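User: Second chain of the day. Same drill as before.
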Amino acid sequence: MTEQELVQAAQKGSQDAFARLVEQNQGKIYNLCYRMTGNPEDAADLTQEAFLNAWRGLSRFSFQSAFSTWLYRLATNACIDFLRREKRRSALSMTMEEEDGEEGRETEIPDQRYSPERELERKEVHRALQKGLSSLSPEHRQVLLLRETQGLSYAEIAQCLSLEEGTVKSRIARARISLKDYLQKTGNFSSP
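Assistant: Same format as last time:
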């Protein structure tokens, strides 16, 4: 079944059709929520909230956009509301828990691509980027993530967020400049 057919079936009450829509979109929605909040538990909760809101509002979905675009909007709105409610923007951190417990295995030859130095460097860059993203306003972070991590076009973002395309472009430009300035000030990015 196509996405449109699944949505129509779900609008008629088919939980199976809605479950298929969830399966098709949950990874993208979780990734968006994770990048907006920086916390896997919050991202999982907000992903669930976005799908719950989609189920509740399914009768109002009018096919003016793709279902996935509508989900992005629901998810970003849930994330922005969460960030405002919890006032966590300045305290976000993206901690990587990669303790795999394999330190005691001496029979393996270490792969230099995953040396401790490179892994530490990768984690530091990742943390710096997450802190930089956290320093942005929710609106700027939202459009930048939709563009850079989800690969949406300016038109798709505009449609998803009910904004003018020019507004999307200016927010993305400002977000990029702010992120670059933040990274330069913290010593994580150097000017050419």
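The chain has a mean pLDDT of 81.

User: Great, on to the next one.
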